[in-house]
Write a structure and sequence with these properties.
Layout lengths: L10 H33 L2 H37 L3 H36 L4 H15 L2 H16 L4 H24 L3 H25 L16 H33 L3 H37 L3 H28 L1 H8 L3 H14 L4 H15 L4 H25 L3 H36 L1
Helix pairs in contact: 1-6, 1-7, 1-9, 2-3, 2-4, 2-5, 2-8, 2-9, 3-4, 3-5, 3-8, 4-7, 5-7, 6-7, 8-14, 9-10, 9-12, 9-13, 10-13, 11-12, 12-15, 13-15, 14-15
């Protein structure tokens, strides 16, 4: 058993030890698409890279709601685990399994049927439309596996187990790399081969995590049936998961709107942003891993009613996030051209990518602060406030800024500039909300 209590012991050691496997797991998962992109860029070309980029945001949007549900299942499970209630824990596990299975299949069908319509909405250039549709449709077959893996890994992490999800992703990552090399580099199957390799790897990772949850060694096991489904547990998950899912979908829609503006700059700009997003993952994934650690840490301690420990843990996470992000940003900025050349040998793509990095990476520490504060509030079971702040700052403010900037600066750097601006607004709002919540808690404690 790899379950662990985050309600006791050294806080900094507990958080870092917990987030490290999450980070490795995220990096392995990202390896799927990064290897796809490198091999496609080298063996197929810039237009194929752009086709993958045009499809990627649609994929993110489609799974956004269920990623929010994964947050809901994580928080609810962490609260239950923190108060040591095995009966409720069993109900949550069964409910998540059924919801993920049905939802994953429904999403797969939706993506297969509507792929061409989605890509038309995004102003995808005609030159890459057919390739993008083919890639997206094959990738849609991954949806049941992706959703079940994300939901079930959220359950394990809520119980303090971040190692097993990592191990299952490593297995999937090895299969994905092998499949990419075989199908793209040797058999010349193009983007369709890359998508097929991802399907195999994601499905295997999901199968492994389900088998682990079903293991007889576990005190609370998953049973592959439809018994013990709990509407009450689903309602609790949805109270957190729906706002988180709506947040993810709206953010992705805003990114799609931004992508439609990027598409107007032509294939080199599309390929540059697609490549930049892959490089950005070296910053983004450690921050997301830290946020997931904060949610599980806060969730367990909230269930165990240890508010001082929550405050200490969040403070450490913010400082760790700032330091980690500053170090990685500096390293990437010093080696920006080299990193871009790993993905493409097109000089215009490389130039655009380096310009984007120079604008966003120096301010990426703001996103680390935002993620930690956001996840602390969510970990306590309040998803509405994080949703409102995130939607306002990362959607409304960002799109308004984009419209204003592009009127006076028709350049990819103008698009890049709206990202750090919106992060700063989000941090200011969250600090204000945190201050008000702290004052309210202190007032309530005095009254008690």
């Amino acid at each position: 058993m790899s379950e662990s209590k985050l309600t006791e012991g050294n806080i900094s050691k507990g958080i870092v030890g917990f987030l490290t496997p999450i980070l490795i797991s995220s990096l392995i998962q990202q390896l799927y698409s990064t290897v796809d992109l490198i091999l496609i860029g080298r063996y197929v070309g810039a237009e194929a890279t752009a086709a993958v980029g045009a499809s990627a945001l649609i994929i993110t949007c489609l799974i956004g709601f269920f990623n929010g549900m994964a947050v809901g299942s994580n928080v609810v499970t962490a609260h239950i685990f923190g108060r040591a209630d095995s009966k409720d824990l069993k109900k949550v596990i069964q409910t998540v399994w059924i919801t993920g299975t049905v939802g994953g299949l429904a999403l797969m069908v939706c993506g297969l049927v509507l792929a061409p319509i989605f890509l038309h909405w995004m102003n995808t250039p005609t030159a890459i439309l057919v390739t993008a549709v083919n890639y997206l449709r094959i990738y849609m077959l991954c949806m049941p596996g992706i959703i079940l893996y994300n939901l079930c890994s959220g359950i394990l992490r809520a119980m303090g187990d971040s190692k097993n999800p990592m191990l299952f992703q490593i297995v999937g990552g090895v299969l994905n790399v092998a499949g990419d090399i075989l199908l793209v580099a040797f058999l010349n199957k193009g983007v369709e081969g890359a998508a097929a390799a991802t399907f195999v790897s994601q499905t295997v990772a999901a199968g492994l995590i389900l088998i682990h949850l079903h293991s007889k060694k576990r005190t609370v096991r998953l049973h592959f049936g439809y018994k013990d489904f709990s509407l009450y547990s689903l309602k609790k998950i949805m109270l957190i998961g729906i706002p988180s899912g709506i947040q993810a979908i709206i953010i992705t829609f805003s990114i799609i709107i931004i992508q439609s503006q990027i598409n107007k700059f032509g294939v080199p700009a599309i390929a540059a942003f697609t490549t930049y997003y892959k490089v950005e993952m070296l910053l983004y994934l450690p921050i997301v891993a830290l946020g997931q650690a904060v949610i599980s840490f806060v969730g367990q301690n909230h269930g165990a009613v240890q508010h001082d420990r929550i405050r200490q843990g969040t403070k450490f996470a913010v400082m760790w996030g700032i330091g980690m992000t500053a170090a990685i940003s500096a390293l990437l900025l010093l080696n920006g051209e080299f990193v871009m050349r790993l993905f493409s040998d097109n000089e215009k793509v490389i130039s655009y990518g380096c310009q984007i990095m120079m604008i966003t990476f120096p301010f990426y520490f703001l996103y680390a602060i935002f993620e930690c504060l956001n996840c602390e509030i969510r970990g306590k079971g309040n998803a509405r406030i994080p949703m409102l702040i995130t939607v306002f700052s990362l959607c409304v403010v960002r799109l308004a800024a984009l419209g204003a900037v592009l009127k006076i600066w028709q350049d990819v750097r103008g698009i890049a500039a709206v990202y750090p601006f919106s992060w700063g607004i989000a941090v200011i709002l969250l600090i204000g909300i945190k201050y008000r919540m702290r004052k309210k808690e202190e007032t309530e404690n005095r009254l008690l």
